[in-house]
Amino acid sequence: MDFDEMLKSWKEQEDKPLYDVNHDLLQLVIRNEQAGMRRALRWDQWTTYIVGTAMTALAGAVLWWFLDHGGAGSYAILAVVGIAAFALWIGALWLSRRRQAERERVFGNTLEEELRRNLSLIDYRLSQVGRWSNLMLWSAPIVAGSVLIFWLILKINDATGFWFNAGFVIFMVGSVAYTTWESSRAAREELLPRRRRLSGLLDTLTSA
After folding, report:
1. Among 33, 59, 63, 154, which has the minimal tally of Cβ within 10 Å of its Cβ?
2. Residue 32: which residues within 8 A CB-CB, separation 6 or more?
3. Is the pTM of this model over 0.70?
4. Radius of gyration over every alpha carbon of the chain, rounded to an integer in angstroms
5. How far apart are alpha carbons 112 and 207 in whole angstroms?
6. DSSP string of 8-28, one letter each residue
7. Enclosing H/E stretch for 29
């Protein structure tokens, strides 16, 4: 039984006393919902760590090339900026996860507290991807770092020119803008109805 089925069962029992509802089963369903959300968050977290580390290593290799060949101080500085951007991306995610974990420690193990913990997780996710501007802000370091590093790689191979550079930047920014907009829209469609359901259920419990 998933959360929607349990909520339907709950509504069908509105004419019965609240204590007739199986609180233990409802709490188990809510915890399963929470576990699913945590798996998604862990997937995002490890994807960020792995991709960010790989891109940082690539930026380090580019930096080494410029330092080894000398005479390209400005390009070496741009490579350092790329490394810093990837490190910022990883560090910002790690710090946000740590702060969210600290917020969740205040919740207990009752049914009401499990609901509040789930709502906290949803609010945390919405703060990241619920708005296009927020998601673009989260994506900015990896976009800036990637553009810099791949442009420097092209520079190493003498494959750059004004129109090529302009097209490359427009393509990168445009594709990221579209994918972040689509991701934000999908996240809202998934999370906002769940947030309303959980809030309604919490109101029912606290007013009983």
Report:
1. 154
2. 2, 3
3. yes
4. 23
5. 11
6. HHHHHTTTS-GGGS-HHHHHH
7. helix 23-69
